[in-house]
Structure formats: C-alpha cells, structure tokens
Design goal:
Helix content is 32%, strand content 24%. The protein has helices at 22-31, 48-59, 100-109, 128-136, 167-178, 193-204, 236-248, 264-272, 310-318, 337-343, 373-385, 396-399, 405-410, 422-434, and strands at residues 3-7, 13-17, 38-42, 63-68, 71-75, 111-115, 140-144, 147-151, 159-161, 183-187, 208-210, 216-220, 228-231, 252-256, 276-279, 283-287, 296-298, 323-327, 347-351, 354-358, 367-369, 389-393, 415-419. The protein has a four-stranded mixed beta sheet, with helices on both faces. It binds ligand EPZ.
Length: 435
C-alpha cells in the first residue's frame, strides 16, 4: 500500500498552483450526461474521485475522452437508455459523488439506479434530503440490494425546503429540476462556491437557474439541455490546505489560481492566529515567522469556516500557543485524526463534537494512518512541521482529493516522497540524513 514518508522541519517556500475544484467537478461531470450533445470540461482536477466517476459515466455508455490531463469531452448520447440503466461497479461504491448521477439521469431519462454512495467515513452521510427533493418533483424511490432507484412518469417543479443545509442535495435537486416542467424553489439551499459553479455550468447548457450562492435557488425547467464548453473554478479546499501548511511550517508561499473571496473564512482565521495573508486578484501569499496563537473554530456551511478545512486548521492550532476549541457542527465523526496527532505529541481531547487543543511547541515524527481525505492532508501538515521522520499509511484517501500532492509539496521545498515499501522508507531516510 502506498505511503508518504516525510522529513519534517523545513519551512515551505515558493509558489504552488491550485487545481480545479473536486467538489464542483463531481457535480459538473455528472450533469454533463444530461444532454446528447458533446460537452467539454476544462480544469478538471486529476484526482481519484473524478477518475472513478468518469469510469462510471463511461460504464453506462457515455463517450468519455480525455483531451488532455485536465480537459474531458463527454457525450451522453451513447448512454444505453434502457430499463436496466444502472450505475454500479466496485469503484463507484467508494465515492460519495456517485449519487449525482441519480439527479442527472432522473432529470434526463426520468429514472436512474445507482449504487448507494460510499465516501469518507466522517459520519452517517444520509441521502434523505436528496430523496425528499426527488419525491417533491414527482419521483418514487426505492432502496434494494444496496442500490437506490428513482423514477417518475414526469417531473413537475415544486417548492422544496432543505431541513439541513446540504451541498449534495442542493446539487442533485438542481439537476433534476432543470428538466422538470415548471418552477422549482430550493429553500435553505447550500451556498458553497461549487454550488454556484454547477449552476453556472447547467445554465451554460441552457438551464434556467437563478439565485445559486444564496439560500433560495429558483429553477425554471427547460425541455432539453445542449452542449457547452466550461472551465471549473479553483479548489477552495486545496488552496486552504496549502495556506495552512505554509503557516504551520512558518514558511512563505504564494498560492496561485485561487479566488480569494472563496478563502475569506480561512484567511481570517489564519490572520487571527498570527499568520500574514496577502491577497492578489487570483493568488494569496501566506507567511508566518514566530509561533502561531490559539483561537476557536466552529465549522459551518459556506460562508462559515469549511468543515473540509477543520482537520488542517486543528493541526496548526495544536502547534499554537494557548488553548483552542474546535467545534465540528456538520459531521459527527470528523475527529478520527486526533489519535494520530496525539502520537506525534499533540495535546488534544475530543468531547462529542468539540476538540479541546492545548498547543505544544513541537511535534515529533511518527508512523500514522490517514483515516480520511482531509484528515490525511492534516497529518501531512503535521509531518511537515514535525521534527524527524513521519510515515503516513493509507495515502489513497489523500489521493482522492489532492492532485500531485507530494510533488507540489516538494516544489515548495518539503522533504516528502510517495513510497511503497520499507526498503523505500529506509532509502529516503538515509538520503535525507546525508543531506
Ligand atoms: C459535500 O458532501 C462534500 N463532498 C464534502 O466534502 C463536504 O464536507 C460537504 O459537502 C459539506 O461541505 C462532495 O461534494 C463530493 P452535505 P455532502 O450533504 O454533499 C447532512 C471532501 O472532503 N445530510 O452538505 O455529502 C449530512 O449528514 C468531502 O471533499 C442529511 O442529513 O455533504 C451532514 O451532516 C468530505 N441528509 C450535512 O447534511 C442528506 O440527505 C451536510 O452534508 C444529506 C446530508
């Protein structure tokens, strides 16, 4: 199994370019099958989750062509629109975003059958709000043999209130409603940048969606969608991860190809703890010199502090002076990395959905395990800041959402390698000690 081995203690310096947003790409790639015309999507991040979803889209018959590493052509005309149209393969159960094909195929074919979603184990991950939306539009759903099937005679616009702000449900309902008859209103909609990106993509295909980015989204159904060429926004969470890595290693990094507005919550928290963040049109520069300070974090739907940045920020706080409180209000199981950080010397205690952090001066390298995607990224940050060597197991989780992560970090001066054996680890340690 692939691992990362890191020799910590080197402040990150230099420039890094951010890839396309994974969580926008997954919705957009699914929505691309809603037309029979060719759709060209640019700035697709080359990560495991997008590759797996494209495999599933190809699996139901759509034509998928990589025009280059980050540009994909999709043509839904070739989908086998048959009774047993079903999205199921061993990979698709591993990613959560497979459920976006529910809304896309329901919109286009008025039925779809998808393997129940997998994804990182950060909580229950229910889909009751997705099915609530589909039912409101006139569909019936059934869960059997760990597959979910939704179908409708025809879809009619409706007023849908989301009891909980849900990114996935907002995107899924937006897709199905785009091809329903009449008007749909989604109330208490998620406002993340990737919601706006999916809405802009659908509108570029001829959909009529207004209000994305606010908590009320209005959709007027259209008869059909057409081909388009679209470029995905930069990844807010990849950018935030590099921002925190720069601060935690007391470095100086220019993070390029970002939308600073999407990073406001992260920028303000890093500034609060003593880092300096300089904003440019499409870049941010993060610097830190002395020891960081403590603060409190509560994860909230956008524009609040993103849950996907909670493990990374908590890691920086575990090295800060003083006591910090981190409250995870979105998912119920997003502190699994705390045990791993404790093995590196962190003083953290978890009570329910709150972590109490007493900052320490230094971490020492250790062998740790990535429990999920963002926790894995947080452990990399911990290893970069620690004294000595850290080996991180299960980096496949990290590869789900970060493109060329170790390569980009090496470009910033980090001493990190992706390895596959004990022998590789020994060789890395010998070479690093020789330097
Ligand atoms: C998306 O997950 C992202 N994944 C997650 O990023 C992100 O953490 C999350 O949104 C919140 O921003 C993708 O976009 C593929 P939700 P999603 O529906 O859509 C509850 C990463 O690291 N809920 O917004 O699954 C749910 O339990 C991943 O990139 C229901 O109750 O999240 C949670 O408490 C991790 N019923 C809250 O809503 C539902 O039907 C927010 O979940 C759906 C969700």
């Amino acid at each position: 199994m692939e691992q990362y081995v890191i020799k910590g203690g080197t402040p990150l310096h230099g420039e890094v370019t951010i890839a396309g947003a994974k969580n926008a790409a997954l919705g957009i790639l699914a929505a691309a099958v809603m037309t029979d015309d060719e759709v060209i999507i640019e700035n697709v991040p080359n990560v495991r989750d997008t590759r797996v979803l494209l495999q599933a889209i190809q699996g139901i018959g759509a034509k998928v062509q990589y025009l280059d590493e980050h540009t994909v052509s999709i043509c839904g005309k070739y989908i086998r629109n048959t009774e047993d149209l079903c999205v199921d393969d061993e990979f698709i159960r591993k990613i959560r975003a497979s459920y976006y094909l529910l809304g896309a195929l329901l919109g286009k074919y008025k039925r779809s059958k998808v393997a129940l979603p997998g994804g990182c184990d950060i909580g229950m991950r229910p889909i009751d709000l997705h099915t609530k939306g589909f039912r409101a539009l006139g569909a019936k759903d059934e869960i059997k043999d760990s597959m979910i099937t939704v179908k409708a005679e025809h879809l009619v616009g409706s007023h849908i209130y989301l009891d909980v702000v849900s990114v996935g449900a907002t995107i899924n309902i937006m897709m199905a409603a785009s091809l329903a008859e009449g008007k749909t209103t989604i109330e208490n909609a998620a406002k993340e940048p990737h919601i706006v990106d999916v809405a802009n993509f659908l509108n570029s295909m001829g959909a009529n969606i207004r209000g994305a980015g606010t908590d009320i989204i209005r959709i007027r159904g259209v008869k059909a969608l057409k081909g388009t060429t679209y470029s995905i926004i930069p990844d807010q969470i990849e950018a935030g991860t590099f921002m925190v890595a720069a601060a935690a290693t007391k470095g100086d990094v220019l993070i390029k190809n970002v939308i600073p507005k999407h990073l406001e919550a992260i920028t303000s928290k890093l500034t609060e703890i003593g880092a300096t963040v300089e904003e440019f049109d499409d870049a941010v520069r993060v610097m830190a010199t002395g020891r960081l300070r403590s603060t409190n974090i509560k994860t909230l739907p956008y524009p609040g502090f993103p849950t996907d940045m909670q493990p990374q920020m908590a890691t920086a706080l575990a090295l800060s002076e003083g006591t910090s409180i981190v409250t995870e209000s979105i998912f119920e199981n997003r502190f699994k990395y705390v045990n791993e950080l404790t093995r590196m010397g962190a003083h953290m205690k978890v009570e329910g959905n709150v972590a109490i952090i007493n900052g320490v001066e230094k971490f020492s390298g250790a062998n740790v395990c990535a429990p999920d995607l963002r926790a894995g990224a947080a452990l990399v940050i911990a290893g970069l800041a620690a004294d000595g060597f850290t080996v991180i197991e299960d980096v496949r989780y990290i590869q789900r959402g970060y493109e060329k992560f170790s390569t980009k970090l090496r470009g910033l001066g980090a001493s990190i390698e992706r390895v596959e054996s004990e022998k590789d680890i020994k060789k890395f340690k010998l070479q690093s000690q020789a330097v």
